[in-house]
Fold these 2 entries.
Entry 1:
Amino acid sequence: MTEFGSVRDEHLGWYGVDGGCEVTEFVSVRDVVFGYRNGLAETTNTGELIIKHRAEEKPVDIASVVSAIEVSETYYYDDFGRFCVANEEAKIKIKQVLAKYYTLNLFDDYGDLEWPSHKLASIAGDHCSLEAVQQWISFGWPEDKLPDFDGCHEQWKEKNGMAGKPIPLVQSPSSRSHVWALAGKLLETTIGKKAYEAVLRGDYGLAIRALQKHGLGADESTKRTLRNNLTEIVGKAPL
């Protein structure tokens, strides 16, 4: 495990220890996946520290990010705040978090899955837990050492015999699938027949109040997601 003589400010990025001179910006896995970049810190002639905001970057897909983690040198802050080169054991932590997010996002057809932050409600379990958020923001790269994500993914495909092969799409279950019948029955059992019938009429109030008792629909964003999910389930479940 390699340790560097640097410290990190949670808001301003990665800095050297030689009196506050900026070495380079630290770009976390969360920044890469969601296209976010921290503002650049600069010192004026009068010694005042100012932050220059930057435009967002194009998000990088999960497959390419994971490929880069596997085949390139990746960095992270360990449990004691030390800045290190990630070994294979450390990489497993962030890969598990990304696998969780990818699995949830597969069936989030409306794009409402929130980015990881413990200040936001999550639509599913430990996606936004404090531990998961720590992994999202602790792993990444100094900006001047960002890998070629597309190139890393091509390298992974070459190594695993997938170069040039078509990738089949993962789709949600067909409307004819028995999965929707099961989902409909489970939903009716959870929210009650009256609320289920109300959803069929386009009235979501009873259903959302019932689901809130199970920790869902705590804010407007997750309520919107629930309405979309309810519409899909009752629309595809056989009557």
Entry 2:
Amino acid sequence: MKRLFRHDPRPAPSRIHRCIAVVALTLCAAGASMAEGTMPKEKQAPEFRLKSRVLELPLHEVKGYPFVEMTVGGRQAKFMVDTGAETALALNTRRFPLRDARVVSRGHFGSGQSFDVLHVPVVEDIRLGPIQLREVHDVQAQDASQLERITPDFGGWIGYHFWGEGALKLSYASHRVTFYPRADAGKAIDGENVVCAIHFRTRKLVNHPIVSLRLGSQDVVVSFDSGQYGAIFASDDVAKRLVGEGVLAPSAKDTYDLKRLDLGCGANLHVDGLPLVTRPFPAAEDIGMTEPNVMTLGYGLFKQYDSVWDFTSHTLYLLAPKPHA
């Protein structure tokens, strides 16, 4: 087990920018490009599904990203629990020897660099908590060396189609992640203190919750994603307007503290240290976002609350955090 980060430091501006360039934009671009392969994402890794039981696992937070430990072919690694990844399972080719892998498409990072997307016919011996699978077929893989900057034992991603239309609970306070099958999704908030219930919709991609709102005088569309910190994609002029209105406050270099965030639940939320990115959001077209002002929210918001991502009711719940007993 690698170091478990129990404190809650806000990443330095350079770290945030690096994480967005290397991680958030990488995942979005990779997720979009993987759709170019020959097999639909919902049909990939069909054995790797939550099935009919609630699954709770230790959550390892590394540099603001949620990981669980999983073993593939006898080798343990950290897998990012990423709502922004649609495929149930994707592997890092640098971490595992994969037999008979073949290139099925090309992917592109936010920086413009490209990489091979591979199809692996069979991956043997996968173990995730109590789940033990002798074989998983039709698994996607890629060289994820850039993600090894977050953790050197980066093994890949666990994405939306693992829990499907059920629910996901993330708790950085208790260091737990819980997956709920569809039949039990409503139980995810039992006994919880709900701070905010955000009713979202999706557009082109089923795994990307979206809401539209007003930030001061500006219309903004917000995308939620557990696999990133968060960012504001808008012009310098828009940012200056929002500063003048008291919605944003300059923080470190090229970052802003979001002082007033109303997500339609009556709670006044805030997020510190959001980078301002003046180029368009790289995944906007693939997600179906056509608005000029985009905000993504990830760890910057979810480190403050426990969260339940209920894709059955299309509701994202923010909960009062409860340390693990």
